[in-house]
């Protein structure tokens, strides 16, 4: 039986997202005890929406945040803060 690890990845570069997905897949494949459920987003608005939902439901076990992601469309968020 594997443990599910809920991961949030906030990254606006598709190449880096693909690399991170590949790394987590390799980790899952090499260890039958872990399964990484990836939650991917490329902008502040979607990231904050996922974070707010996680607070009310299943929280993230791990968050990888891009430190230079563009601000939200309404300029409400300039950085993702957890």
TrEMBL record:
Transmembrane segments: none
Record carries keyword Phosphoprotein: yes
Residues annotated with 4-aspartylphosphate modification: 66
One of the GO biological process terms: phosphorelay signal transduction system
Every Response regulatory domain range: 6-82
Entry keyword annotation includes Flavoprotein: no
InterPro entries to which the protein is assigned, alphabetical: CheY-like_superfamily (IPR011006), Sig_transdc_resp-reg_receiver (IPR001789)
Keywords: Phosphoprotein
Name of the protein this chain belongs to: Response regulator receiver domain-containing protein
